[in-house]
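Notebook entry, structure prediction.
Reason for the run: the old model in the group folder had no record of what sequence produced it. Starting over properly, with the input documented here first.
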Amino acid sequence: MKGVLLNKTVYNRGHGTASLSVTGSYFDGKKILVGVTAGAAICKATEFVRRLRESASEVSVVMTQNATRLVSPQLFGGAFTDMYDGNSMRHIDWQKHDLICVVPATANLIGKMANGIADDLLTTTILAYKGPVLIAPAMNTAMWENQVVVENVAKLEKRGVNLCGPEEGMLACGDNGWGRMSEVAEILAYAERIVAPKDLKGKNVLVTAGSTREFIDDIRFMANGSSGRMGYSFAKEAWIRGANVVLVSGAEIEDPYDIRIEKVISAEDMFKVVKKHFKWCDYFVSAAAVADFRPVQRVKGKIVKKDGLDVSFTGNVDILKWCGVNKKRNQKIIGFAIGRAHEKFKQKKCDFLVENKATNIGMPCGECVLIGCSVEKSFSGTKGDMAKGVWDEVL
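New structure, fully documented this time:
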């Protein structure tokens, strides 16, 4: 049983190029309360709180008494632990917070939440809270699969509680199975999806990412250095904003969140999958670095080195151009190009085109220029920053 996210997250418009470096996150200005329970994954909670404090305006930490036996509250920069420390109404005061996250969430905490038990500061706070709650379960596989826990999780699902994880992997006891707490970056993404504006809610977004591989024989192939980070960043940003996302990927990157992934190898494979999904999408983001050519014939086995390599190539289908020609009036297309951006913007009938830099390939950061009928703007920063900025402008 895998955890899922529930409840399915002044510009220059004249001549020339406006420049914008995008920073920050959707935690900016938010007040977040973090609950910490006595799970083996408690060590990850300190990192989670540290990352939140980099952008959120206020982060309060509440630890259970058993959690304080594993980690000192001082490692969180201080934490609340006692219901009767002089302010017995604190659990009411926290109702103004934007989100409660419980990291990690043990089977005990899940059971208390599901059955309305409020016997300490954390559970009392959660019971009184009317806003969104996110929990990151962490426990042994035997506990996660226990029927009581399964029923308790189902109760929380029905009430709209958000879950991130757990995942399958190595557990603290040495076993390998379901129950491992999700990584901090993933929990942060799920939390960000809850507090982010839902300007893509209900929209269907199709994204291509990474490079394609065009095989010469069964061993050798032609490809490029695209890591897929740009396409994955655009897919993640759309997902955070509440879109239904399908990611068509030729990149070998770990599957993100609960986004639907369609793995492909060649340009022809990618084209078939794009055609299958294109008709229903509201936005198509063509971020993949698709090979322009493929071998006329793929040789079976391995070409013997002493025979040399003499390969004839033919052109691949232009996926972006096909989508531009076949798009419906209500569909928006965001293309990508390296070089000749203005020319390709017109030729391929894009609504927007991102002029990518060759120096961005394979790198986590870089810069790009967004081109549209009434906008031309540059963005720089991480690929996540660039995706956020471009989506802001497109929407």
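Summary: Residues 1-23 have pLDDT under 50 and may be disordered.
The old model has been moved to the deprecated folder.
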